[in-house]
Amino acid sequence: MPRASGGEYLAHSFTDLMTSLMVIFILLLLVFLNNQAGANAAVTEALRQDLRDKLEREGIGQEADPKDPYTIALVIPNQVMTFETNRYELKPEGEEFLRRQAPKLAQILCGAYRGNVESVIVEGHSDSVPFRSASPEESQNLNLKLSQDRSMEVVKKTLQFLEAHPEERACLLEKLSATGRGEQDLESTADKSRRVVLKIRVNSGSVGSTLLQRFQNGLSR
Q1: Tell me, which fold does domain 6-220 have in CATH?
Q2: The whole model's pTM is what?
C-alpha cells in the first residue's frame, strides 16, 4: 500500500487539529453558557429584589413570568391599568399611576441594571366580547388592534411623564416595546381582561451563540 505523501499527511494532521479545536471550543462554550445562565438568573433575582424593596411601599409587586424565566411581570394594584369597553384611553387612575411610578421605574432600570435589562415590554390585552355585526374572525382582529392601541397609549404616556428626566427617558425609549395580545391570556372577567401588563426582560445570554456562529464562520472561510 503506497504511503501518503508529506502534503497529504500535513493536510490530515491539520484537519484533525481543527476538529480537536472545535470540540474543545464547544466544551468551553457549554461551560460558558451554563455560567451565563446562572449569572442571568442571579441578575433577574437581584433586580426583582431591588424592585421589591423600592416599590412595595407603593403596593406594586413582581412575579416571574411562567413562560420565560428571564422576565419579570409587574403586579399593578387595584386594576388601575384596565380600560373601558372598546376604549384605549387610560383611566384617570391609570394616568396617575404612570405619573408617579414611571420615573421610579426608569431610575431603577436605567441605573445599575441598565446593561442587564434587554427590554421593557408593554403588553396590551382585550376581552373576548364579540363586536356587534362582526364575525368571530373580525372581532378577533378588532380586539387585536384595540389591544395594540392600549399598549401604545401606555408607552406614549410613560414617555410623556419622563420629559423632566431626559436621560432616563432616552434610556427607556431604547428598551420600550409595545405589543398587542388581543384575546390571548384572558382573565377571569371581561373587565379584568381589558388591561395592560408591564414586563421587564433580563438579557438571556445570546452572547454564547454569537461566539459560536463567528467561530464557525471563521472555519468556513
Answers
A1: 60s Ribosomal Protein L30; Chain: A; (3.30.1330)
A2: 0.72
